[in-house]
Write a structure and sequence with these properties.
The protein has about 280 residues and is α/β, with parallel strands linked by helices. It has ten helices and eight strands. Strands 3-5-4-7-8 form a five-stranded mixed sheet, with helices on both faces. A three-stranded mixed sheet has the order 2-1-6. The longest helix is centred in the last third of the chain and has 42 residues, at about 180-225. It starts with a helix and ends with a helix.
Length: about 280
């Protein structure tokens, strides 16, 4: 499907079961009215879906995503037959106190990245559900665009919920094991939120190390009667503080450990140890 989306001068529209009558009618009408060629793709599993159609002529704008459900904790982006499982997963998550926002992209070209980015900036977590293979798919493209446009807002890496990279089996039971379901999306959300909590803990630890190192440097400077070894410690910890300010998480903590191995056992190192012991770390 993403191969069709990369074609020049063509628009690729897709509708999902949640729209049923309203969406399919509005998408078809918009595709016919558009002056450019439009490729209208439908998930075969949605064939025969029925729904209410409002009276009168109406259009569903191409290139405009639809926020099917508002939320504050995680963004679930889906399309086609993955939208309904995403909404059902959001219901299950709500029962656990997790507020999920569900975004139906509706069309691939143009892709409404602004709506996706706006949602990610609100929630800080992104899960993409796609009824397609993992490699080179729609989920991979949304992951790339989200990290390009909302890297500073993401509190964890985006999570893709897709088929495995295998041919879809003919056996119904094996097919169900491959396609994306409600439980798969719930697990994807749990993975994203758990990664966000772990990252927050690492950031807190790195921040605490920066605070201890800074206090030790200031104590060394104010002592006034430091010897040559202590003066060297002060300079080393000063450089260490500037480096850690540029690092976060595990990388910053590894740098702290390397510096502590080289600081001489006097003056500032003793002050650092005292601060760490006083903080309970």
């Amino acid at each position: 499907m993403c191969g069709y989306a990369s074609r020049d001068q063509a628009k690729a529209a897709a509708f999902c079961r949640e729209f049923r009558g309203t969406g399919s009618y509005g998408d078809y009408a918009a595709a016919i009215a558009d002056p450019n060629p439009v490729m209208f793709m439908m998930d075969v599993s949605l064939t025969g879906s029925r729904g209410e159609v409002p009276d009168g002529h109406h259009l569903v704008p191409l290139g405009k995503a639809d926020v099917k459900r508002s939320g504050t904790d995680v963004t679930i982006v889906a399309m086609l037959s993955a939208v309904q499982p995403a909404l059902d997963a959001a219901d299950q998550l709500a029962a656990r106190g997790i507020s999920a926002e569900v975004v139906d992209v509706r069309s691939l070209v143009p892709l409404d990245i602004d709506t996706i980015v706006s949602s990610v900036r609100k929630t800080g977590h992104l899960v993409i559900a796609e009824q397609g293979r993992r490699t080179c798919g729609f989920a991979a493209e949304v992951t790339s665009l989200a990290t390009e446009h909302a890297w500073d807002a993401l509190r964890s890496a985006p999570v893709r919920v897709t088929w495995p990279d295998v041919p879809i089996p003919y056996s119904p039971s094996l097919e169900l094991a491959c396609i994306v379901g409600i439980d798969d999306i719930v697990r994807g959300v749990d993975t994203a939120l758990a990664a966000g909590r772990a990252d927050a803990a690492e950031r807190h630890r790195a921040g605490r190390h920066r605070q201890v190192a800074g206090q030790a440097v200031e104590e060394g400077r104010l002592a006034g009667s430091v010897g040559a070894d202590q003066a060297e410690d002060v300079a080393l910890l000063d450089r260490h503080r500037r480096v850690v300010d540029r690092l976060e998480g595990t990388e910053g903590l590894d740098h702290v450990a390397r510096v502590n191995q080289h600081v001489s056992p006097c003056g500032v190192r003793a002050a650092t140890a005292g601060r760490s012991a006083g903080s309970g770390r």
